[in-house]
Structure prediction request, 99 residues.
Amino acid sequence: MRDNWTDYEQTGAVVAGVSVGSVESHKKFAEHHGLPQTLLADEKGEVTRLLNVKSFLGGSQRAVIVIDGKGVIRYRRSVVPIFRPGDDEVIKAIRDASA
Prediction:
């Protein structure tokens, strides 16, 4: 995502990462990896539960979720690091959700 950030920006979508870490851990992670998107700290796991992405280890399961302007989930894919959706697939899902 970082390497194709301009393509994501062109969709007009709000792109954010959510995880059950602390604000400080998110800041360090984003700085270390040069991430342009916002990272949200879900320290109480509320968003993780709402989106049904709680991992069996108690953290957040990796997933790509596209939510349209009305709050409807239009695309959802669990992510195993080596089997993640490509940027083209995610950008298409964003564009389809806004059509």
Summary: The radius of gyration is 13 Å. The longest helix spans residues 87-98. Strands lie at 16-19, 38-41, 63-67, 73-78. The first strand starts at residue 16 and ends at 19.
